[in-house]
Amino acid sequence: xxxxxxFLERIATGPVLGDGAMGTQLYARGVxxxxxxxxxxxxxxxxxxxxxxxxxAGSEVIQTNTFGAxxxxxxxxxxxxDFDAINRAGVTLAKKARQLAGQPIWIAGAIGPxxxxxxxxxxxxxxxxxxxHNVFAQQAAVLAEEGVDLFAxxxxxxxxxxxxxxxxxxxxSAVPIIAEMTFTEEVLxxxxxxxxxxxxxxxxxxVVAFGGNCSVGPEVLAQVVERMAxxxxxxxx
Length: 237
Fold this sequence. Notes:
Layout: H1 3-13, H2 23-28, H3 39-42, H4 44-56, E1 61-63, H5 71-76, H6 83-101, E2 106-111, H7 129-146, E3 150-156, H8 159-172, E4 177-181, H9 195-201, E5 209-212, H10 218-229
Parallel strand pairs: 1-2, 2-3, 3-4, 4-5
């Protein structure tokens, strides 16, 4: 059985525990790399140790430290030249953690949106759909080549951009996709999308699970999942 098949089988059997945040753990351990994805190159032992801590806590899925490692975000931090090395090292470190833990776990290639809210250094053409598609596909292709078991397209603030990212990832890889958006205290994405709109929009997308992450705490995310659950049979995150 392939890893892809067994992950799909696994989520069909019941809840799967994934890992938590990477950035806050890097900060807590004194990493000051800018951007934090560069820690794959500057502080690889710490990144690997975070993966291992999540595995020892019971995680069955760990996400690569590549959330901001697309060319748009890296260029905004002056790190575009490290794009390839950062993404490849992110997968390598997660694989080493899996090897050390000796557990049958899955590695998710983490892909975040093209730019943080209010970052004026992100070029306006990042909003162009074709340009965005190419940026997401470029990162996904490297992560897929390194052998991720699935993709975690996460912490997106706008449904429109999430849909572009899903299509872009699918254009270069057939491995499972998990999609997650971030929500405000009003239980909306920062762009104003409702949980219901997201559930309906992703019904025709090739994702194995979707839901929310980051945001303003578990109470809001519980509401998000409850509202999505009334509209979909797809597993929720």
